[in-house]
Amino acid sequence: MSQPRGLGLADPERENAVLFAIIEAATSGPGVEPLAAAVARVITEATATDVCFVHVLDDTEPSLTLAGATPPFDAQVGVVRLPLGTGVTGWVASHREPVVIPADKQDDPRYVAIPELRGEAYTSMVSVPMESEPAGLVGVLNVHTVARREFDDRDVRVLRTIGRLVAGAVHQARMHRRLAAREEAHGRFAEQMVAAQEAERQRLARDIHDGISQRLVTLSFHLDAVRTFLDRAEAQAARTDLATACDLVLTTLDEARAAIGALRPPVLDDLGLAGALAALARGLPDARVVLDLDDRRLPEHVEVALYRIAQETLQNVLKHAGADEVDVRLAATDGGVQLTLADDGVGFDPQDGRAGVHGYGLASVRERAELVGGTVRVISRPGTGTSVTVTVPLDDQAIDEGSARNT
User: What sequence ranges are listed for the domain Histidine kinase (predicted)?
Assistant: First the structure.
């Protein structure tokens, strides 16, 4: 009785169909594990083999991890690990050469039984390296059959072609994962940096309030008391000096309070972002203010950034726009929060490099938005007013946590 031969891909059209199916599976998504699972399934279905394992080279250690497998071994994905050089798979990874074992795996000195993968239940196997340019070695692809199967050079060539396709796709998936991780880390760093800056501002504001301001207030009381008790006729010069000292104390106290406000806006703690924005807008003289503000709380670093952006933008409206009406809108929507500040003033050309300095301080606004992962959109033309929209991506949980912060 003749033994089944090869992968059953003697027909070039069938071989091409399998390769196209592998390409389609390789473009199914950016995840390494879903990609490996799709490839394993396509290979076993197309070649009438019984099981396929996709072992991927680890990023930091000289070892391989099972990244994809056909059932019932898909439960072992991420669990089975092999050091380079261990077993047939480890040997293939180390030598970058294929191995074909038609029968009696136990007699091959390279073979090491892996209980979780039940190698003793399968007679024949082919193991090929997955490598390509510029990815290099990415992993090892194994197929197994229960019945003895005669795999020839053509079968190995096809599997190595499949391995090259998978290697390129795995490399792209890894690059995508690293980029996503880098972006996430950048976002966390920016958030932590803003939080650290605001914590330091808050500490300095508290020190000024609790130390310098309080001492100035106390000094002012003492000076007033001394001036009250001085004899007007005999100590006119002293009274003049005391009056000057009192005026200096009051001026210094005003400056300290202004410094506290610049370091950390107390209005955010007292009123929240919506109330703080309303207070900012109503501080514009000679302009009608239209408010549409979502009063849900946001993460602290986002509230501070949006408040500072509004503060700077409205200050520039006051200085440059000559506006009769100013709209301030804050909306927490699916996936983010959006702040829009619009006026009907003189407008400007956003493409004019001088606008960033003389118009709306766009460079600073964009910098603050980028620190919290946001974007800025400016719409303006001379004579038509200006709209500045800041969008910061957030999930619903972040908004809910922000609201809970002050409940």
Answer: 306-396
Amino acid at 223: L
Helix ranges restricted to H, 208-299: 214-229, 236-263, 266-282
Contact 87, 110 (CB under 8 A): yes
d(CA 257, CA 266): 10
Fold classification of 12-183 is Beta-Lactamase (3.30.450)
Question: Which residues on neighbouring strands pair with residue 330, listed in sequence order?
Answer: 293, 339
> Pick from 164, 97, 122, 80: which is nearest to 110 by CA?
97
* Among 105, 96, 106, 102, residue whose Cα is nearest residue 130: 96
Cα–Cα distance, 15 to 22 (Å, whole number):
11
Say which residues have a Cβ less than 8 Å from residue 218's Cβ, sequence separation at least 6.
Answer: none
DSSP designation for 74: G
Count other C-beta atoms under 10 Å from residue 403's C-beta: 15
85 neighbors 91 (Cβ within 8 angstroms): yes
Q: What residue type is 141 in one-letter code?
A: L
Cα(31)–Cα(68) distance, integer angstroms: 11
In CATH terms, the superfamily for domain 267-404 is Histidine kinase-like ATPase, C-terminal domain (3.30.565.10)
Q: Which residues contact 144 (CB under 8 A, 6 or more apart)?
A: 49, 50, 51, 52, 53, 119, 122, 124, 125
Segment 6-29, tens digit of pLDDT: 555 445 555 566 656 666 666 655
Stretch (H or E) spanning 100: strand 99-101
Tokens describing residue 265:
């806006």
Read off the DSSP letter of residue 211: I
12-183 and 267-404 have identical folds = no
Helix, strand, or coil (residue 404):
helix
pLDDT digit string (tens) for 233-271? 556 666 666 777 777 777 777 666 666 555 556 667 677
And the tokens for 131?
Answer: 């490598």
Domain ranges for the chain, please list them: 12-183, 187-263, 267-404
Distance of CA 315 to the CA centre of its chain: 31
